[in-house]
């Protein structure tokens, strides 16, 4: 698996394909990917004292002051009727890129609603023109609205196409003069990543802007690792070169502000906006506070994982609690969701434990008995000790998570969570049986089963349960687990699992000679 910090790295790697023969735990172990065992470094307790509950953090009062200062600036932007200005767009973009937008959801919503209103009440915008707005401004507005769920039409970019210049097919292409506008090109390329099926103009925008940016990039010397941002700034070659390089390699929609904010913050803006310094100071404080909370959560998770009782139950499993924590840390960024991050990490840990049992430590007969025990969720008769230990640990964790959810939301997700583990074990058992036969499954059979063995349906089920205040209906229960529904969020589980499986398989597949 690639060593990226992505959420996908939190789940088990794929089983080798094409399938090799294996009929015993010993033979399965010979094909098992080696990993560090009980060796992952964790934060020292002394570094976490300031983030313990009830202990005053030295940054708390400063952080509150900076929060109020930035909130006042955002409110001022709205009250001064600048809510639809380019400056307000750059303001919001900075909040997102610095990773502090989640602190100002209401203020951001107010400004975006103002932009959405003006978009619908300006004829040039709704008919595909752009009036006096630059490509940079139009593309930035489109991206910010789209990423918050406003279905603004992609046709707003039609005004930037040259009707007299076509690609030979009779269809117009983007105006060649736009290739001189580096800021506009970077903004257009960023916006093109939020296209939906059938929006050909955004596909064209991606091709046009990427080609132009690469051409520009080749004209600049390679320089240091900086960032540039702001239409009112002095566009030095150094900053423009890095702007293009970073846009091409890490477009915002495909990046994580948590990992990119520091570089953006270091060289943020060379303009004169009065909110620049307050934004930078708040981002630095917020980053420290969030990191402190994350370290404390990792300490809790590692303490749980290395508890003598649990360690004895699952002593054969991998020891990678920090790795397992990455996905919850990225998915659930709100500091208030601390318990949810911890609970989700425990679930991911058990996905790994069960994956190891099926990959290494079980015969087909034992694995069949284990799967049946998970389906009944009661009997451990005839199971080896390590499988009994795994079941006991899984039962304890599931009960703990269900209790937390019931206490917070008032509903019991036991049926949902148990069903997710049942489906995971059944899918693992299917793969284990494939390994004992000379005939490999078809591509469709493999992929349909492999989507489940990614662990994504289990993680999705636990995520939805942790965040849902109204319970989950039988219809949603089925859709979340097996992706059988094609409605709304129910498709998320299936598609996320497919993306992860294909991405991971492509990273480990061997090309035949």
UniProtKB/TrEMBL annotation:
Entries under PANTHER family matching the protein: OS04G0344100 PROTEIN-RELATED, S-(+)-LINALOOL SYNTHASE, CHLOROPLASTIC
Taxon lineage: Eukaryota, Viridiplantae, Streptophyta, Embryophyta, Tracheophyta
Protein name (record): Uncharacterized protein
GO terms classed as biological process: terpenoid biosynthetic process
Record keywords: Lyase, Magnesium, Metal-binding
InterPro entries listed in its UniProt record: Isoprenoid_synthase_dom_sf, Terpene_synth_N, Terpene_synth_N_sf, Terpene_synthase-like, Terpene_synthase_metal-bd, Terpenoid_cyclase/PrenylTrfase
Domain Terpene synthase metal-binding: 308-510
Keyword presence, Magnesium: yes
A Pfam family reported for this protein in Swiss-Prot or TrEMBL: Terpene_synth_C
Top-rank taxon, per record: Eukaryota
One term of GO molecular function: magnesium ion binding
Domain named Terpene synthase N-terminal: residues: 66-213
Cofactor(s) recorded in Swiss-Prot or TrEMBL: Mg(2+)
